[in-house]
Amino acid sequence: MRPDLDVAATLECEPELLPYLPEILQDFDELGSDPRRLIECLEGECVADDIRHALDLCCGKGATSIALAKRFGMRIDGIDAIEAFLESARAAAVDAGVDELCRFTTGDLCAFVTRPGSYDLVIFGSVGPILGGITKTVTHLMTPLRNGGWLLIDDSVLLPGAPVRPGFEAHTQLEETRRRVEMSGAEIVAMHSSGSDALGHDSDMQRIVRRAAHLVERRPDLAALVARYVERQRGECSFLEQWTRDVTWLLRKPPT
Ligand SMILES: C[S@@+](CC[C@H](N)C(=O)[O-])C[C@H]1O[C@@H](n2cnc3c(N)ncnc32)[C@H](O)[C@@H]1O
């Protein structure tokens, strides 16, 4: 098993580029999920009062953890493989005045989904299928939860006619995804969805292209690696816009 391959896969890059990714992504706080949608999902079902301690797995720069801590006052442990992202998360938590509530630690996702825990909420935002298909993913993510605990998963589903694309082989259309989530034994409490995953990709690409160009200026030897990353990001953005929509699932682990 190569953990760097997993991490690189979630960030759509080659493992050799990983050390430079924090530099290329320095203009982004959110690396996938829109924290507002996750907050709306919890507010819509009035479950926040039942949550004191949450675990944000693959938290990136902590945008979701920080937003939830600020909105609901819950304690959150954020785990990610990339220390540079966590440094940004710690600084952002201080700026937002929630550093007492948020604890960001380097770690591997696998260690947390194999050890039973007592968290009230687990968050899995825009990480994709690194734990397997959605049934397996939900089953794994219930492990660190107490009985009756909550699970927020933010991911995309395919639109009808979507072509096969590397990285999306495990994704399915909405109804099939719902059926597969149900197979895990978790209760589907709510499902919030955006019309399409098309917001903001143009400006995101501009920021990536600018930082990539700066990196290549400094490190011409990385030009080919960086160019492949930028091209892949373009392809990814246009696929997401055309063929997917974002879905946030609020699930509940059975109470007994
Ligand atoms: C697309 S980003 C999403 C970050 C965050 N959840 C968000 O929505 O802003 C995926 C994150 O997963 C992390 N990651 C990937 N594999 C991991 C693993 N095995 N253990 C811990 N973190 C991992 C990456 O470092 C990256 O920060």
Would you identify the CATH H-level superfamily of the domain at 29-196 and 245-252? Vaccinia Virus protein VP39
Class from helix and strand fractions: alpha/beta
How do the strands line up in the largest sheet? 3-2-1-4-5-7-6
**What small-molecule ligands were found?**
S-adenosylmethionine
Biggest pleated sheet: 7 strands, mixed
As a percent range, the share of strand residues is 15-25%
Number of strands: 7
In CATH, the topology of the domain at 29-196 and 245-252 is named Rossmann fold
Mean pLDDT: 93
Q: Supply Rg.
A: 18 Å
Enumerate the spans where pLDDT stays under 50 for 5 or more consecutive residues: none
Write down the secondary-structure element order: HHHEHEHEHEHEHEHHE
What is the overall number of helices?
Answer: 10
| Morphology | globular
For the terminal residues, how far apart are their CA atoms?
A: 34 Å
CATH architecture of the domain at 29-196 and 245-252: 3-Layer(aba) Sandwich
CATH class label of the domain at 29-196 and 245-252: Alpha Beta
What is the share of helical residues?
40-55%
Describe the protein's architecture and organization.
- This protein has a domain at 29-196 and 245-252: Vaccinia Virus protein VP39 (Rossmann fold), CATH 3.40.50.
- The protein is globular, with a radius of gyration of 18 Å.
- Strand 4 (119-125), helix 7 (134-142) and strand 5 form a beta-alpha-beta unit.
- With 256 residues, the protein is α/β, with parallel strands linked by helices.
- It contains ten helices and seven strands.
- A seven-stranded mixed β-sheet has the order 3-2-1-4-5-7-6, sandwiched between helices.
- The two termini are 34 Å apart.
- It has helices spanning 3-10, 21-24, 35-44, 63-72, 83-96, 109-112, 134-142, 174-183, 201-218, 223-243, and strands spanning 53-57, 75-80, 102-106, 119-125, 145-158, 187-193, 244-252.
- It binds S-adenosylmethionine.
- Residues 3, 6-7, 10-11, 30-33, 58-60, 63-64, 79-82, 85, 108-109, 125-127, 130 line the site of S-adenosylmethionine.
- S-adenosylmethionine binds at residues 3, 6-7, 10-11, 30-33, 58-60, 63-64, 79-82, 85, 108-109, 125-127, 130.
